[in-house]
Amino acid sequence: MTLAARLADVDARIADAARSAGRDPAGITRIVVTKFHPPQLVEDLYGLGVRDVGENRQQELTAKSARLTGLDGLRWHFIGQGQTNKARAIRAVSSVVHSIDRDRLADALHAADPDGEPLDVLLQVNLTDDPRRGGVAPDGAARLAEHVTASCPSLRLRGVMAVAPLGEDPAPAFARLADVSSVVRGVAPDAAWISAGMTGDFAEAIAAGATHLRIGTAITGPRPPHD
User: Fold this and answer.
1) Whole-angstrom distance between the N-terminal and C-terminal Cα of the chain?
2) How far apart are CA 59 and CA 20, in angstroms?
3) Residue 39 domain flag
4) Which domain holds residue 188?
């Protein structure tokens, strides 16, 4: 299957899932995750109409964005765990950061460019019982949202993000995320984005209200070997 065929197949499946959930497919943003793939793949995707791509690692995001400066309208989504000492580098090239999970990271991203163009951000929510996993606990999301909106004026809180727990039915997990989204909207009414759903569970995410999907291998093919 070619890249174009895989992209078309996934987009058709997204549209089918949206219609099955009584939703308009146009209200869903498909982000292609290009982790470990070369910059050429991003160029190829751009030629196929893709404008939203995601990266997990700051170094890879920085390197690819430096190589691909001529792709007008391309939006880089940082979807990995953020480190405060890399906040300046992340902010310098990201259109959206999906993974704010603590005050210090929000503060560092704000301090990186306090007077710059607003940076769209989402709160990463931990849907597991393991505190070592990335994300704020569901019952801490409202307080974190209050901190971002009150103390980080250069950040524009757009919603929430999560990964479904391994070994669990994704549908109830995404339902819990939708509940957290409602709580966050009580703090920031415009924070309506829900970033959820990957290659194996995007239909369940769409049914639960996801607005942004992070799709990797179903579109890109297997990831190449990496260090």
Assistant:
1) 27
2) 39
3) no
4) 3-23+48-220
